[in-house]
Amino acid sequence: MLFPPRAGYFLYNWLTMTAKANILIVDDEAQIAEMILATLEANGYTAAVAYNGSQGLKRVSQERFDLAIMDIQMPEMDGITALGEMKKIDPELEVIIATGHGTMSTAIQSLRKGAFDYLHKPFELKELLKVVERALEKRKFNDIAKVIFSTIKPEDQLRVIIDAVTRILKADESLLVLPDRDGKPRVAVSGGLETEEALSSRLEMCARVMAQPAEAAKALQLVEAPGLEKRFSDIKNLEKIKFSLFLPLVEDNKPAGLICINRDEEEAYFTEDDMQRARIFGSLVNLALRNSSLYRQLQETQGQLIQAEKMSALGQLAGGLAHEINNPLSGILGLAQLVLENLEKGSQNYADIKEIEKAVFRCKKIIVSLLSFSRQEKATIEQVNINEVIEETLTLCARQMELKHIKITRQLAPALPMVSADFQQLMQVFLNLFTNARDAMPDGGELTVATSLLKTPGGAELLMTSITDTGAGIPPDIINKIFDPFFTTKPVGKGTGLGLSVCLGIIHKHNGAIKAHSAPGQGSTFTISLPV
Q1: Which secondary structure element, helix H or strand E, spans residue 89, and what is its range?
Q2: Same domain, residue pair 311 and 403
Q3: What is the pTM of this model?
Q4: 220-260: per-residue pLDDT in tens?
Q5: Which of 7, 26, 162, 472 is the most buried (most CB within 10 A)?
Q6: CATH number, domain containing residue 414
Q7: pLDDT at site 151
Q8: Are residues 386 and 527 in the same domain?
Q9: Are residues 254 and 310 in the same domain?
Q10: Which CA distances in Å does 279 have to 141, 191, 225?
Q11: CATH number at residue 31
């Protein structure tokens, strides 16, 4: 797994902080320093000794230490001053002040300078070891937090999270479960699970925990032998798990996910310290995921603002072009109508010129729409026959469909009620959908357009329109993105990714809904519902 440089640096620091943390002892009393050194080494730590503050400061500038245990009253440089200088060199260094000459004032002063804790001499070595463990635990969590927050990419962040929780809580298995777009639990990332059967059984276990009432789902839960517990007893492949810890992730005071940590050894019970570590870690993960979500939202918003500026410029350009095109069209229309006056109404020439006149009127209508778009005018809402909108739109693209060997099948229900809508905007929606269907069938196919009237259980009437093609279909992993602004699967220069987004916006303004249904290799169907 590759991490960004900053994440990799902190991850390395954290991974190397095992029981053999590097500790510096700074004390001018050689006997005490040697006693602490022997105790630390006997408990698996590596340690070094400095006999005054200046020596200690020099060692910290030359070597990386995780922790310093330091006296206050020493020659050349006292412990409080050395503490401040060491923190300037390495702000992450944890420092324990241990002295027999200190007062409450010096204790407060050392804590203000950044000391982790303060011990009075003489102290028991057991007491010192406990404080050392707590200080290193804090250092470990600080490093883990930096790892998690140093990367924003979800895939990197989730992997760091699961690796960290596996190591901190000594898990044989771990998995992070998040809801998918439909709210169904899914395994976002896992560790120690090699088979699909094992992964599936753990996911089912997590899904049942997440399905509990909100208050229960938000609580840290410890389960001994989950395979024997009633709520999990019907789930297969849980036999080897001896202890499970379920760590909830919460957003806006609601359950937002779950981390499951499993241990397989009979004696590997989760202690109170483990539970506390899990709670702290859960808080870090919640903050990290929230931070990642906010960052993605910021990126999306920035992208939308940039595109909004482009669209504003495009609107101004469209307005200018519309005016330029309108003038020659007026001349063509005038000349066509002048010629019509001198032709017999039943002649072929008369019919041809009438087609020219009709095409010019259609162009002028489109120009009016462009001008309306550039001025951001309100839509013209009127009573509209949906079948007429479809027929007029099909007229615009019928020739293109014919050239692409696409057969158009109409299944338009007669005598449909009118809907309140903007005729031109609905044409834009259908034109976008017909064009997309054409592009989905480069080797030909069939486009089916159907309309019908539907009554909801509540008695409301909806006018339904379905547009079905026989193209390649839409892959499942992108079908939920196709209405997003600027999302496109077309090559650069072939599509802006705005077509379906515009369709969605127009239909929503008409208080309707548009949905896509597709399967790879089986074509696509877009369904539009509009209230009557």
Answers
A1: helix 79-89
A2: no
A3: 0.45
A4: 889 999 988 888 989 998 988 999 999 888 777 777 888 89
A5: 26
A6: 3.30.565.10
A7: 61
A8: yes
A9: no
A10: 12, 20, 21
A11: 3.40.50.2300
Distance from C-alpha of 400 to C-alpha of 436, rounded to nearest angstrom: 12
In a domain, 54, yes or no: yes
Domain of residue 258, residue span: 152-270
142 in the same domain as 214: no
pLDDT tens for residues 23-55? Answer: 999 998 888 899 999 999 888 888 999 999 899
The pLDDT tens digits of the residues spanning 463-488 come to 999 999 999 888 887 777 777 765 56
Task: Check which CATH number belongs to the domain holding 156 and give it.
Answer: 3.30.450.40
Q: What is the pLDDT of residues 395-431, one digit of tens each?
A: 777 878 888 899 999 999 998 999 999 888 888 889 8
**How is residue 209 written in tokens?**
């925990």
Which residue is listed with tokens 């009633």? 230
Please say whether the beta carbons of 392 and 352 come within 8 A: no
Number of domains in the chain: 4
Spell out the residues 6+ positions from residue 334 whose beta carbon is closer than 8 angstroms to its own. none
Give the residue among 186, 217, 213, 215 at the shortest CA–CA distance from 202. 186
pLDDT at residue 509 is higher than 50: yes
Boundary of a domain, candidates 123, 148, 173: 148
Cβ-Cβ contacts under 8 Å for 61 (sequence gap 6 or more):
89
Tokens standing for residue 471: 């193209």
Q: Label residues 455-483 b or e (16+ Cβ within 10 Å = b).
A: eeeeeeebbbbbbbbbbbbbeeeeeeebb
Contacts of residues 102-111 at CB distance under 8 Å and 24 or more positions apart, as own/partner, are 102/72, 106/72, 106/80, 109/80, 110/72, 110/79, 110/80, 110/83
